[in-house]
Write a structure and sequence with these properties.
Elements (H helix, E strand, L loop, with lengths): L3 E5 L4 H10 L4 E6 L11 E4 L5 H11 L3 E4 L6 H6 L1 H22 L2 E7 L9 E2 L10 H16 L3 E6 L1 E3 L10 H11 L3 E4 L2 E2 L2 E3 H13 L5 E4 L8 H12 L6 E4 L13 E2 L1 E2 L2 H7 L6 H16 L1
Parallel strand pairs: 1-2, 1-4, 2-3, 4-5, 5-7, 6-15, 7-12, 8-11, 9-13, 10-14
Helix pairs in contact: 1-7, 2-4, 4-5, 8-10
Length: 303
């Protein structure tokens, strides 16, 4: 019998794509909050406000999941800065509600964190390094990491780079969709060129997560990212190379990164992935390799 994965925030970009990948092996169910977006499969879904612990309890009691993934939250750096209380509510308070109920139900709680927990100093950050974020979003998810590790004995935290792919909601666009829209409309777009990040296809994250679940990894914080790092502008250039498209629509820009305090003119969010590679037994890809994977995946999907 298939094990059950419950995704809180299944209609989000991350939630919907993880559902698509994980449904190859698990029974996937989920929640939505305001609108039930169109998803390519007929998943069992219920409405839930993660800030309401009673609703969270009812959902987990109803689905009886083996794994709970928290894909709710405000991951936009700009929006988190403009509304820090909302960011804290969604990225921390809601997550802790789901964690508490999951723990009681015996389900493994999976939290997707971010490289933005770090300061952006030009060094290779290890899992044990103390987070010190200069963004409201990074501070919120850093606090959640700490609280999960302090209070739970049945969790898995994955620190991720910039995740990209195609979503099912027109409301939010990730860097990949912004680049594609720019090409489609023939419109130039300014992209950050002073912050180096890892970039990973969301479907690859789903595959790595399945490998970790297969191996029974729990009570660990692991970092998942590409071997190399680029700015948003450089990523767009590499996208154009891999997809065979024009680079004329991309313009480099600086000072687009919404810091709470200045930490230098050039930021790098590099994470040590040696522990993750040894746990999964799979080498992390380069950014070019993850883009090649994306190109092949989308070509096969459209054919």
């Amino acid at each position: 019998m298939k094990k059950t994965v419950l995704i809180f925030g299944m209609t989000s970009f991350v939630g919907s794509n993880l559902a698509e990948v994980l449904s190859q092996k698990y029974k996937v169910v989920g929640t939505y909050f305001t609108e039930r977006e169109y998803l390519p499969q007929d998943y069992s879904m219920v409405r839930c406000d993660v800030l309401n612990k009673d609703e969270v309890t009812k959902v987990i009691q109803f689905f009886r999941p083996d794994y709970v993934i928290y894909a709710v939250g405000e991951s936009s750096l700009v929006k988190a800065k403009l509304a820090p209380k909302l960011s804290e509510a969604l990225n921390t308070n809601g997550a802790l509600n789901c964690l508490t109920v999951s723990e009681r139900a015996g389900a493994l709680f999976i939290y997707l964190s971010s490289a933005y927990v770090f300061s952006g100093e030009n060094k290779l950050f290890k899992e044990a390094d103390t987070p010190f974020s200069h963004t409201a979003y990074g501070t919120a998810v850093s606090n959640t990491e700490f609280l999960i590790q302090r209070s739970s004995m049945h969790y898995l935290i994955l620190r991720c780079p910039v995740l990209y792919g195609l979503g099912f909601s027109a409301g939010k666009k990730n860097i990949f969709e912004i680049i594609q829209e720019s090409h489609f409309e023939g419109r130039k777009v300014k992209l950050e060129n002073s912050v180096e990040l890892g970039f990973l296809d969301i479907h690859l994250l789903g595959r790595f997560l399945m490998a970790l679940l297969d191996k029974g990894v729990l009570n660990r914080l692991l970092q998942i990212t590409t071997k190399d790092y680029m700015t948003m502008y450089q990523f767009a250039q590499k996208y154009a190379d891999v997809f065979g498209q024009s680079k004329a629509f991309f313009e480099p820009a600086t000072e687009l990164f919404p810091q709470e305090s200045k930490s230098g003119n050039h930021l790098c969010f590099k994470m040590d992935i040696s522990n993750t590679e040894s746990r999964i037994g799979i080498m992390m890809p380069t950014i070019e390799e993850t883009l090649e994977f994306t190109c092949k995946r989308l070509s096969e999907k459209s054919s």
